[in-house]
């Protein structure tokens, strides 16, 4: 079918314009998706340590209990508190404390690399780790590995080296246990570790 040159040119111009509009729309959608992903990550990530934040931990705790209820694999929780952190802050200042928290966060990530491992900053100098599909022996081994890794840290700050230890409370999930009760048990282990002299793991 014959089309006059003017019609062909018009159709080609319209097709080019539509293609350009589609490309522009695609780029805008991609940019929006990236912005949404960044906003989502910011809402669940602790700015200093780049670990998950307390809000994300609370949500993951519920999911972990639900999954543990449905599956045969066990779940474990560690509550980690840095020993004498206030004294450390007083000696080295808040930047020194921040450097320590960042170094401890990295140590946690190096130890807990499993698919079901979830590491969060619980608040202040306290961190928390949720583990899925583990047994009691694995929980104890990993908790001790983390304690040793933190004790071995040499955090360089302002021309000085900061050394520290951590106390860890460990609790294996008991069938039917609610998340709040699970956290309370791990916390009890943490307080027992502090009372027993710090720099140790106590299983609740």
Word description of this protein:
The chain is an alpha+beta fold and 204 residues long. 57% of the residues lie in helices and 20% in strands. The chain is built from five helices and seven strands, in the order H-H-E-H-E-E-H-E-E-E-H-E. It has helices spanning 5-44, 54-70, 85-111, 136-151, 179-195; strands at 74-82, 118-123, 126-134, 155-157, 160-162, 166-172, 201-203. Strands 2-3-1-6-7 form a five-stranded mixed beta sheet, sandwiched between helices. Strands 4-5 form a two-stranded antiparallel sheet. The longest helix is centred in the N-terminal third of the chain and has 40 residues, at 5-44. The radius of gyration is 25 Å and the shape is elongated. The termini are far apart. 28% of the residues are buried.
Class derived from helix and strand content: alpha+beta
The helix-strand sequence is HHEHEEHEEEHE
Q: Largest sheet at a glance?
A: 5 strands, mixed
Strand content: 15-25%
Number of strands: 7
What's the pLDDT, averaged over the residues?
91
Distance between the termini: 84 Å
Helix proportion: 55-70%
Assembly classification: single chain
| Rg, Å, rounded | 25 Å
Produce the secondary structure layout:
Layout: H1 5-44, H2 54-70, E1 74-82, H3 85-111, E2 118-123, E3 126-134, H4 136-151, E4 155-157, E5 160-162, E6 166-172, H5 179-195, E7 201-203
Parallel strand pairs: 6-7
Antiparallel strand pairs: 1-3, 1-6, 2-3, 4-5
Helix pairs in contact: 3-4
Keywords for this entry:
204 residues; 57% helix
Summed up:
With 204 residues, the protein is of the alpha+beta class.
